[in-house]
Amino acid sequence: PLLVPCIEGRRTRQTEQALDFVGVAPAAGAAGFVLWVLEALRSGRATLVGTSRGGHVAAAAALRQPQRAERLMMIGSTGLAPSTPERAQSFRDWIMNLTPASHRPRLERVFSDPRLARDDMVREDVSINTSPGASACFDRFLSYMADGFNRDLVLDRLVEIAETVPLLLFWGVEDSSVPVAVGRDARARLPQARLV
Hints:
Strand content: 15-25%
Shape: globular
Number of strands: 6
Number of helices: 8
Strand order of the largest sheet: 2-1-3-4-5-6
Radius of gyration: 17 Å
Structural class: alpha/beta
Helix content: 40-55%
Oligomer: single chain
């Protein structure tokens, strides 16, 4: 998901738009969609906030049109470090064999209190991720992750907008999807950024 809080002409009014991506597009394509939404909302500068792949997309949008980005927040984001064919295969093996029993431990790691991963939540998440069309969508994304993903990395290019678009990197120390080392490495390369 990508959150796009934007000021609509008055400093006292703020709206938030949450976008989720239907289907799969490379980060650059999804960034184009985000910029289209900002244009359709007639928002001026926006604070772009994204988690995981959404952070990658938010960064790609900020890089494409830095004048639209007031601030950027990347939460446990992809796009800062290369993917490997092994990582893509590991994710493929997990997602293509998704069951409530195999998925529960992953959801339990998302929360600081694993008890929050209730049975109904596990069932719903598995249902969504195994619904008609999901397998083909994941297959396309995983093919992109194994091949084209590394052409869309944003870390080196974020240096170009570091002076005009403040960047907050937000990471959980126990994040197993995108390890905190990725955030630390990004912070080392981007001295103007803050890492929390």
